[in-house]
Structures are given as C-alpha cells and as structure tokens.
C-alpha cells in the first residue's frame, strides 16, 4: 500500500494528515473550514484516496493559512506515498461536467511543480469561504507534490459548481496518474530514468 503520514506545526496551523493512494475514497476530514472539508471529501471520493485530516488553524484571522498549509501537507503526502514513482501511469486528465460548469484538469506527476489555474469564479465567497483560496490550495499542493497541474474552466456561472468541479476533476485525474500501469513492469515512466 502506498501510504504516508504528515505532521506540520507552525505558528498559524497544526496539521496531521494520513493518506493512502490505494484506497476506496474514505475521508475523515476536519480542516476547521467547512467548505474545504466538503471539497477534500469530494477529492478523496473521486480520487479513490483514503485520507484522515485534522487542522487547527488561525481561522479567527481568516481561512488562508489553513487552506494553504493543507495544500502543502497533501502535496507532501502524495509525493511521499509515491516514492520513486516506479510503475505509475504518470499522466491523467478529464473534462468533467458539474451541472452548467465544465472543468478540464490535466496532471503530470513529473517531479516539476507548475500550476496553470484558469477558473473564473464569480463570487468572492461561498458561505464563509474566500473563493480565491481555491487557487492558493492548488498552488501549495502542486509545489509540494512536484506535479504539473492544469485546471481550466470551459463553462460555468455558479461559483460552487466551478470549485466543486475542479476538486472532483483533480481527484479523477490523479486517480489515473497514480495508477500502476502493468505494462511498465515497474519502470520509471520517463526517458531520463527519473521523475524529479
């Protein structure tokens, strides 16, 4: 089983996270940010990852530090669970509809961090959640995981649907990318012989 455990404590957040890439989509999430709990649960269900997360953050200030630091921790957990990435499919992509919203997500587990974020979210807040924190989460995750991630909105007007579509699409694309490809016979899927 490809699993990891991350603990991160700063003056702003105290986070513990366990992850299994070969799970069934079980999520036990308490981030202190209810909308983010919902999004992370969807990510797990659609990515077939099992995750337990506890975060105590300075949400009395705002949710920024919690969203960013959870992104850092989840990225580290993905990187750790993948090890040397031997045998993985490496790439994943999907165009995912969420009612009127249509989201394209493409992932390369390359070892090189990059985020192209093309979501145009009309509302500044969904409930108490600042919608700009979606981008902050994915920036932190892509950097710490060492993945190239493209999230593009092809259609959509409802802010909740756009962000929900993005988290579901990321889960689905990652599910493809981390899958073990039996044709690779344990090889590193790169002509360089390393994904870093």
Features:
single chain, 196 residues, alpha+beta, 4-stranded mixed β-sheet, globular
Low-confidence segments, ≥5 residues, pLDDT <50? Answer: none
Describe the global form: globular
In total, the number of strands is 10
Average pLDDT taken over every residue:
95
Total count of helical runs of at least 4 residues: 4
Measured between the Cα atoms of the first and last residue, the distance is: 22 Å
Helicity level, as a percent range?
25-40%
Strand order of the largest sheet: 1-2-4-3
Radius of gyration: 16 Å
| Class derived from helix and strand content | alpha+beta
Write down the secondary-structure element order.
EEEHEHEEEEEHEH
Largest sheet properties: 4 strands, mixed
- Proportion of residues in extended strands: 25-35%
In short:
The chain is of the alpha+beta class and 196 residues long. The protein is built from four helices and ten strands; from the N terminus they run βββαβαβββββαβα.
Describe the structure.
With 196 residues, this protein is α+β, with helices and mostly antiparallel strands. Helix content is 34%, strand content 31%. It has a 4-stranded mixed sheet, covered by helices on one side. Helix 2 packs parallel to helix 3. The chain is globular and about 50 Å long. The mean pLDDT is 95.
Layout of strands and helices, then pairs:
Blueprint: E1 3-9, E2 13-20, E3 27-30, H1 34-47, E4 50-57, H2 64-82, E5 91-98, E6 101-108, E7 114-118, E8 125-126, E9 129-130, H3 133-145, E10 148-155, H4 159-178
Parallel strand pairs: 3-4, 7-10
Antiparallel strand pairs: 1-2, 2-4, 5-6, 6-10, 8-9
Helix pairs in contact: 1-4, 2-3
């Amino acid at each position: 089983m490809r699993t990891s455990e991350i603990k991160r404590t700063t003056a702003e957040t105290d986070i513990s996270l366990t992850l299994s890439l070969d799970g069934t989509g079980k999520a036990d999430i308490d981030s202190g940010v209810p909308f983010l709990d919902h999004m992370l649960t969807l990510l797990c269900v659609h990515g077939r990852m099992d995750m337990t997360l506890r975060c105590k953050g300075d949400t009395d200030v705002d949710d920024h530090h919690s969203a960013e630091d959870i992104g850092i921790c989840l990225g580290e957990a993905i990187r750790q669970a993948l090890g040397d990435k031997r045998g993985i499919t490496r790439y994943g992509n999907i165009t995912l509809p969420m009612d009127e919203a249509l989201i394209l997500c493409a992932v390369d587990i390359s070892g090189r961090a990059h985020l192209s974020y093309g979501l145009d979210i009309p509302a500044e807040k969904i409930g108490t959640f600042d919608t700009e924190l979606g981008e902050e989460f994915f920036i932190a995750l892509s950097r710490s995981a060492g993945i190239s991630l493209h999230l593009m909105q092809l259609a959509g007007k409802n802010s909740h649907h756009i962000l929900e579509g993005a988290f579901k699409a990321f889960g689905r694309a990652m599910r493809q990318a981390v899958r073990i490809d039996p044709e690779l016979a344990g090889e590193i899927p790169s002509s360089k012989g390393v994904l870093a």
